[in-house]
Design brief:
The complex is a heterodimer of chains A (about 80) and B (about 140). Chain A is mainly alpha-helical and about 80 residues long. In chain A, about 60% of the residues lie in helices and about 0% in strands. The chains are: A mainly alpha (about 80), B alpha+beta (about 140).
């Protein structure tokens, strides 16, 4: 799986979780950039990504993420493990 | 309860039955005046044996299962999908079971398989999601 494929599938997840098809993911995007990105939507993002990509994350891995680009990198690394 | 105590396939169950008086109370609370839930004769014209219990009262018991049993204290209910498979009639005893189907450590979220059975039929199946914010 390529980084662009992950971005594409993750974009669909963001659109679904935030019910907003206008969200465009960028590597440096953070929760500050999306009005509705609160703790519960954050949980939905994590769980939806785990299901979509068939992976599991630890709480430490997720806690250390600083932006969307790092999330994509984590998914990519997990898919190539 | 700590997060690590939740293990796949662990389950909790509760039994309940719904009385006609509880049906009347819920009718007032919800404003759902459908005679399917109040009038035996009308319900029979639709092919049922008698008036049918409000599906939302089954959901109310799912709330009790999640809030008081699994995950219980510290749990925050975040999602539900349910299929009502057979009618439930007032007075029938129901066993409601929640089984841990998946667990996300990163999100501290449990997904539960749900099933509600009377003695001779499965009345509902579904799934629920609950985040655990309790103490470790």
């Amino acid at each position: 799986m390529t980084e662009s494929e992950i971005f594409s599938r993750l974009t669909d997840i963001f659109h679904d979780v935030f019910d907003d098809d206008d969200i465009e993911l960028t590597p440096d995007m953070t929760a500050e950039d999306v009005d509705e990105w609160d703790s519960l939507s954050h949980i939905r993002l994590i769980v939806a990504a785990e299901r979509e990509f068939g992976v599991s994350f630890s709480s430490a891995e997720v806690a250390n993420l600083e932006n969307v680009g790092q999330f994509v990198a984590l998914i990519l690394a997990r898919n190539t493990d | 309860m700590s997060w690590d105590k939740f293990v796949l396939e662990n389950r909790a169950e509760l039994q309940f039955n719904v009385s006609s008086a509880e049906m009347d109370t819920f009718r007032i609370l919800s404003g759902d005046t459908n005679p399917l839930h109040a009038d035996d004769a009308y319900a029979r014209t639709l092919g049922f044996d008698s008036k049918v219990v409000f599906g939302a009262l089954i959901v109310a018991k799912i709330s009790a299962l999640i809030g008081a049993h699994i995950p219980g204290r510290g749990g925050v209910w975040t999602g539900l999908r349910i299929d009502f498979r057979k009618p439930l009639y007032p007075g029938e005893t129901v066993t409601l079971t929640g089984t841990i189907d998946s667990k996300s450590d990163a999100a501290r979220m449990l997904t539960l398989k749900l099933r509600a059975d009377t003695l001779d039929k499965c009345i509902a199946t579904g799934s629920a999601e609950a985040v655990f914010r309790g103490d470790d």
